Amino acid sequence: MTLSTRDAELIAQALQQHRVLGRLDAAARDALLPRLQLQHCARHQIVATGSTLTQRLYLLAAGVVAFQPEAPDDQTPPLQLTAPDWFGAGVQAPAQGGWQVEAQAPALVATLGLEELAALLQAQPWLQLFMQPLVVTPPPQEAADPHLNLMTTPVRALLQRPPVTVSPHTPIRTVAELMREKRVSSVMLVEQGHLFGLVTDRDLRNRALAAGLDPALPVLEIATVAPMTIDVNAPGFDALLLMARHNIHHVPVMDGTQVAGMVTATDVTEQHSTSAVFLAGDVHKQTTLAGLVAAAAKVKTLQKHLAAAGASAYSTGHIVTAITDALTTRLLHLAEVQLGPAPVDFAWVAAGSQARHEQTAKSDQDNCMVLDDAYDPAVHGDYFKQLATYVCDGLAACGYVHCPGEMMAMTDKWRQPQRHWAELFRQWVDTPEPMALMLTCVFFDVRVVAGRPDLLDSLRQRTLQRTRDNRLFLAHMVGNALSRQPPLGLFGGLSTLRSGEHKGTLDLKQTGIVPIIDLARVYALAAGHPAVNTHDRLAHAAESGEISPQSVRDLRDALEFLSLVRIRHQSRQIAAGFAADNYLRPEELSNFERSQLKDAFGVVKSLQDVLAQRYRMAR
Known about the structure:
Blueprint: H1 5-17, H2 26-32, E1 37-41, E2 46-49, H3 50-53, E3 56-62, E4 64-69, E5 79-82, E6 85-88, E7 99-103, E8 107-113, H4 114-123, E9 165-166, H5 172-182, E10 186-191, E11 194-200, H6 201-209, E12 224-225, E13 230-231, H7 236-246, E14 250-255, E15 258-264, H8 265-268, H9 276-285, H10 289-296, H11 299-308, H12 313-339, E16 346-351, H13 352-355, E17 367-371, H14 377-397, E18 415-417, H15 418-430, H16 434-443, E19 446-451, H17 454-467, H18 471-481, E20 506-507, H19 509-527, H20 534-539, H21 549-575, E21 583-584, H22 591-615
Parallel strand pairs: 9-10, 13-14, 17-18
Antiparallel strand pairs: 1-8, 2-7, 3-6, 3-8, 4-5, 4-7, 10-11, 11-12, 14-15, 16-17, 16-19, 20-21
Helix pairs in contact: 7-9, 7-12, 9-12, 11-21, 12-14, 15-16, 15-17, 18-19, 18-22, 19-21, 19-22, 21-22
């Protein structure tokens, strides 16, 4: 790969100063440099986990990282490493199993795969004095999935060639000839160092050839102007989500204001029917509800593949939710084909798990509509009722069952102009009676999926100003959150359901994950922070003073573990031909996993107790 001058200098300096690799002669270090894969890591970003630590050698060129147990463990202090240092495959210490590595400050890491590392050891046998024997085994093909390493792979590492650019005034025929010569599917329009647009082979076919356009015209005539872009140091996973959410296959990569290259769908994922980008693309191609139902049926297989391959719960939630977003926007488009364009502006708003990017294959739907204040029920009411009913019924047909509490846009109460929503939110905060608190838990976790984002953004901003440091409202929210307790018995054992259809099971959602979601919501509202995703809320939770940084880490680890247990449980059910649910029998787990589960529940219970004490007087 091509390194920037600054990055190349930092890596070369780290190689030279490293206590072992510094013994390589200058020629060997120079030969090693282009074989390294670069990774820029933000503070608190996970650099590697137990599953990846044994597959690559990591050279910490700048910054500080810390080894810590993957499962919550108050007894094991983090082990910090400061640049220049190394860890991962072949390095004798620390032990790799059950650990993860987190950046404690912005870090620059270079990695070397097992085959490259084996070649280095063969060329430099003396290095084996400092390293353990390597076990080079190919990854199991059945579990292979294109999303797995994208969380830690920067977009920079996905670039296949230098950027191919032309002037916006270049004739269309000349651009087509250049694309054939360079064997690329897209070019970027650049003038005086600024990106103006993007042209793909599809544009040439649909906007030029099929439209009978004069090939001597400037290529700007058929370009997508001001295209979506991504930063060169962003995780590859962000590129995948950008493509999946917007049904695009080419994204220009920017290094500051300069064009660094192009990343395509084939760079981030394989072309098979259960990859997120291509599944989202398949959704957007459908012209009937039956086609959308068939596409949605692949979500279960997608989740099963992700679980088998060890994807994190955080990334799985984002990927599965991206497909739900695609289904929602396509249903809106099909509705507008039948009904005509909307008479006034609106925002289609997802609530609950979809808004938080935390969906799994077992999800109902929570949504609403915020209409422009020009909305007149007598004139526009029938249109929006038909539109919302079409979308909600379509989602139900795709497997997202109707909300049992009817918190959906097809219900008249949840399809209102912005001024009405503002009054509702004000009442919920100022008069937090039980029903208001229940609605708050749904409608304070919201995100615009389609339409005008500002219709919701201004509402959110005003509401957060009212909730920040509002001790009475927050006390009622805490009381509501404490109504769901982790399933621990008197002596700390797991307490299963004692009656009903699911007797003898643990409800992983309502008594495990939801209590963490409720805590994170309180922290966000107390700080006036706009984050919606629970992991993101927890990342900022210490800002409110409601929770310590160590407790934040514990709670995030507990959430990730409980979510993974839930996803794997559902994947086993799907593989066995059963409907996915949230009810786990403890005997499905090993003794070690049951111990971790109790630890995770214990973390939640202790932090619930902290908030209960803090807000007792206010209640």
